[in-house]
Amino acid sequence: MSKNSINHLAIIMDGNGRWAKQKNRSRAFGHQCGAQTAKKIINDCVQKEISHLTLYTFSKENWSRPKEEVDTLMVLLSTMLKKETENMLRNNIRFNIVGKKEDLPEKTRGWVLSTIEKTKNNTGLVLTLALSYGGRQEIIDAFNSLIKSDVKIINEEILKNHLYCPELPDPDMIIRTGGEYRLSNFLLWQSAYAEIYICDKNWPDFDEKELEKALKEYENRNRTFGKV
Question: So what's the architecture of 8-220 in CATH?
Answer without folding.
Answer: 3-Layer(aba) Sandwich (3.40)
